[in-house]
């Protein structure tokens, strides 16, 4: 397997466009780029195969502070004709004119990204089954709050890990990230199958698996945009893993059930490790912090809204099964399918609103969807029957899907005026939001232990509605009180 980290840097004083003797400059908003400026040739894969024409070809692009937005020069491999670009320092996404937008290799990246999402958000969205198993049998002596820390730490490490591994991905260590992440996820499941105490489960499930998903998050998101203008990867693991765990748990026990899931993760993670191949890398390291973001009221208010919303968002995912069993809304077998229903509806909630958002604007979609999500949490309080529980679960899964899918789009389109700092602002926002996801569910667990489910739903619904209000305020700060303006 070839490495993407052994880059060769060769300097050239002659840019391919210099022959045209163009003296025009391109304004970047920060500086002007002069044709003929110093370039840097970068081979991002198969460095040792230049003589045979194999691998990704080198590219000559301007580097340094004067690099233009979205400008990248390309060379074509004599053998396979594949275009490769390395993006200038002021750019966080590649020049769309160079995107293949199809072909076998490109579709293999979609397949690989699908399985990365399968084993990141898919695993995260399965924790409700573990929460029920731990509370009712495996960790019966532990409080709901202490158990929920396991899943909350997982989500936190997924989101913060994505922010911290962004610069590693930018530096060309794509294969190392997915290899390490895959190992940690598989190893974590195998160790979890042997755990007999709370602290062992914290180490195996929360930290080991959580760190593994954090390594895979950025590669899963980042590589698709370099092959396609727009393609969606879906966290379908959240539909499949709950069913597998529940069906096996009653027949072969917890240990072997988790081992089977570990073997599934091993098989499905081998695919992206084999087929995924980076096509384009930024020419400069990504900054971890954009200090100007703290002076941007719309960015800070929206991030605060997402932070508060994520505090309440996952309470439904963590506790709906236990609630249905405790309140005798359904039998235990059907209750375990509620989480799969929730995640299946969430898939459609991430796709359909995204298409509508292209027409009317993402902020105009996420605010009403978040509002409905908050109201739906409150509607659980008077529901004690199967039909009502299923309907509320499906509706919440659909409308809450925008909480995961649209914030990155909003930050990219409306809250990142400097296109070269998109990745930085995404990382900053998700790091802050991750803290909300970390603390919300343990607080809900403590409330459940002291006051019962009614107080949990009041707490969760209030948080989601408060987050909605802050998101709405962010929209007002951007476009004013005009309700029919695309935003």
Automatic annotation (TrEMBL):
Keyword Nucleotidyltransferase attributed: no
Keyword Transmembrane found: yes
A cellular component term, taken from the record's GO annotations: membrane
Region Disordered, residue ranges: 1-24
Localization in the cell: Membrane
Bilayer topology term: Multi-pass membrane protein
SUPFAM superfamilies: MFS general substrate transporter (SSF103473)
Ranges annotated as biased composition (Basic and acidic residues): 1-23
Domain called Major facilitator superfamily (MFS) profile: residue spans: 298-487
Transmembrane annotation, as ranges: 106-127, 147-169, 176-192, 198-220, 232-250, 256-276, 297-322, 334-353, 365-384, 390-412, 424-444, 456-478
Primary localization: membrane
Gene3D superfamilies xref list: MFS general substrate transporter like domains (1.20.1250.20)
GO molecular function, one term: transmembrane transporter activity
Keywords: Membrane, Transmembrane, Transmembrane helix
Pfam families in alphabetical order: MFS_1
Family: Belongs to the major facilitator superfamily. Monocarboxylate porter (TC 2.A.1.13) family.
Protein's name according to its UniProt entry: Major facilitator superfamily (MFS) profile domain-containing protein
């Amino acid at each position: 397997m070839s490495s993407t980290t052994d880059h060769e840097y060769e300097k050239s004083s002659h840019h391919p466009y210099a022959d045209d003797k163009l003296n025009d400059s391109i304004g970047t908003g920060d500086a002007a780029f002069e044709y003929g400026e110093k370039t840097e040739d970068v081979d991002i894969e198969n460095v040792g195969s230049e003589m045979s024409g194999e691998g990704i070809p080198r590219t000559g692009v301007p580097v340094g502070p004067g690099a233009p937005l979205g400008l990248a020069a390309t060379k074509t491999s004599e053998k396979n004709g594949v275009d490769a670009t390395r993006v200038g320092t002021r750019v966080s996404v590649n020049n769309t004119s160079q995107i293949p937008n199809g072909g076998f290799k490109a579709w293999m990246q979609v397949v690989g990204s699908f399985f990365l999402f399968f084993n990141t958000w898919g695993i995260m969205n399965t924790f409700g089954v573990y929460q029920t198993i731990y509370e009712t049998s495996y960790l019966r002596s532990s409080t709901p709050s202490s158990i929920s820390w396991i899943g909350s730490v997982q989500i936190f490490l997924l989101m913060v890990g994505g922010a911290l591994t962004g610069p590693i991905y930018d530096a060309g260590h794509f294969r190392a990230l997915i290899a390490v992440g895959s190992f940690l996820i598989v190893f974590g499941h195998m160790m979890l199958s042997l755990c007999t105490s709370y602290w062992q489960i914290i180490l195996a499930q929360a930290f080991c698996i959580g760190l593994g998903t954090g390594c895979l998050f950025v590669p899963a998101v980042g590589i698709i945009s370099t092959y396609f203008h727009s393609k969606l990867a879906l966290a379908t693991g959240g539909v499949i893993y709950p069913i597998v765990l529940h069906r096996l748990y009653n027949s072969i026990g917890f240990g072997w059930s988790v081992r089977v899931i570990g073997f599934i993760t091993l098989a499905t993670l081998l695919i992206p490790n084999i087929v995924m191949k980076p096509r384009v890398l930024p020419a400069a390291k990504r900054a971890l912090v954009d200090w100007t973001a703290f002076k941007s009221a719309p960015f800070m208010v929206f991030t605060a809204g997402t932070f508060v919303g994520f505090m309440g968002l996952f309470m439904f995912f963590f506790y709906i099964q236990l609630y249905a069993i405790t309140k005798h809304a359904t039998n235990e077998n059907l209750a375990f399918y509620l989480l799969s229903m929730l995640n299946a509806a969430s898939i459609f909630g991430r796709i359909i609103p995204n298409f509508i958002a292209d027409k009317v604007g993402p902020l105009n979609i996420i605010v009403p969807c978040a509002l409905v999500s908050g109201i739906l949490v409150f509607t659980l309080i008077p529901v004690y029957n199967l039909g009502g529980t299923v309907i509320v679960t499906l509706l919440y899964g659909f409308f809450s899907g925008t909480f995961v899918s649209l914030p990155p789009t909003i930050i990219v389109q409306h809250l990142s005026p400097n296109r070269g700092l998109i990745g930085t602002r995404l990382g900053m926002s998700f790091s802050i939001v991750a803290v909300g996801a970390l603390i919300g569910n343990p607080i809900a667990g403590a409330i459940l232990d002291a006051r019962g489910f009614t107080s949990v739903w009041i707490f969760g619904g209030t948080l989601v509605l408060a987050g909605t209000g802050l998101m709405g305020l962010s929209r007002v700060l951007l476009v004013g009180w005009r309700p029919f303006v695309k935003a």
